[in-house]
Design a protein that fits this description.
By secondary structure, the chain is mainly beta. Helices cover about 15% and strands about 45% of the residues.
Length: about 375
């Protein structure tokens, strides 16, 4: 806790320094700058964007005893520029120790140094493995657990690695290549297990794509192959997200393990969004974690499970899940506060879950800036 407190103090100090730099008298004569001041680039805004994001709510099972209030996470996000070409990104989970990485990095989702040069962009550090799926690409605080695929809730793709991307001049297509530690690597620095990804992101007025081909090494020379096709279609205020994934150790059995989700959404106005979600998953043998649990033990855990979502998908029964929800932004022209209410169910447990809560984004730089202006 002491280390975390020091970390937060340091973050606020950085924000304060950034705001102070922003507030410096702009009438200072530019003649004081010389050609040797190569670190000063007039077109670059060095003030980082810093926010603390959190979600809180009530979660319960209809006609059940499992219910209560609780938080869904507190995340620190920092994005900033070092120079015209170099930038950095940090997404850190606070008050949480997760993963097999060491110390603070176990709770780090993203920590990258980024470089841009023309149509090219490169990043190095800890990031999510590239995976062509809009559900997987969503920010954690924008996802609702019982409405997610089992894959999303079971797969930890936060890994150290490097990524290269090339974008065409019209900025309609970006092609990506990534090499990183494998999601199945339990000891990142010594396991020598890697993941490889080729991806394509497209963006037009009525359509966005995010497609990838992935290879995740689970033992030396042995890979899980994955094909992911993420699509979003826009029709005015209505949108339809369609994600499809199929994965297997052997290519001829790709359809034995798959996920298909459809998420329609309608923006009634700037403040209200309605959405639904329908999903279908198949798993021929615990593909998510490759633990090798017996099917009998998996069935037993499902019978003892008291949550809306089952513990496992069994090979003899497809998993169908569905839900609906509404999001409301109470502040005019501001998305920093959001209220939500969602309902979810599935064909495994026949239980119905509800989640009602709120999400807020605390803009640290803006808050400190207001204090300085008083």
């Amino acid at each position: 806790m002491k280390r975390l407190f020091c970390f937060l103090v340091a973050t606020l100090a950085v924000a304060g320094s950034a705001v102070y730099a922003q507030e410096v008298d702009s009438t200072m004569p530019t003649q004081t700058l010389t050609s040797e001041d190569v670190t000063i680039e007039e077109s670059v805004d060095y003030v980082p964007a810093i926010s603390l994001d959190a979600r809180f709510g009530y979660n319960g099972i209809v006609s059940g005893k499992a219910a209560g209030f609780g938080g869904d996470g507190l995340l620190l996000n920092i994005d900033g520029k070092i120079s015209k070409r170099f930038s950095y990104t940090l997404c850190q989970r606070l008050f949480e120790s997760a993963g097999d990485d060491s110390s603070v990095f176990g709770a780090t989702d993203i920590l990258t140094l980024n470089f841009e040069a023309g149509n090219w962009a490169f990043s190095a550090g800890k990031d999510y493995v590239i995976l062509g799926n809009w559900e997987y690409n969503a920010y954690d605080l924008d996802a609702y657990f019982d409405m997610n695929t089992m894959f999303y809730n079971s797969f930890d793709g936060r890994r150290w690695g490097v990524t290269a991307a090339w974008t065409n001049n019209s900025e309609t297509s970006t092609f990506l290549f990534q090499v990183a530690n494998s999601p199945y690597s339990e000891e990142p620095k010594v396991s020598s297990l890697y993941s490889y990804a080729l991806g394509w992101q497209g963006a037009w007025e009525r359509y966005e794509s995010y497609w990838t081909v992935n290879m995740w090494e689970y033992s030396h020379g042995s890979f899980v192959k994955n094909i992911a096709l993420g699509n979003i279609f826009y029709f005015g205020d209505f949108s339809l997200t369609a994600d499809f994934m199929m994965r297997a150790v052997e290519l001829d059995k790709l359809t034995d393990n798959m996920s298909l989700t459809l998420q329609p959404a309608y923006d009634i106005c700037d403040k209200v969004r309605l959405f639904g979600k329908f999903g279908w998953e198949k798993d021929s043998g615990n593909m998510f974690d490759l633990t090798g649990n017996s099917f009998d033990s998996m069935r037993q855990e499902n019978e003892e499970c008291t949550t809306v979502m089952p513990a496992y998908i069994l090979p003899d029964k497809d998993y169908l899940f569905y839900g609906a929800g509404v999001e409301y932004y109470p502040i005019k022209n501001n998305k920093n506060v959001r209220l939500h209410a969602v309902w979810s169910s599935n064909n495994y447990t026949d239980r119905h879950g509800i989640n009602i809560g709120l999400t807020w984004k605390f803009d640290v730089v803006n808050a400190i800036s207001r204090i300085f202006k008083r």
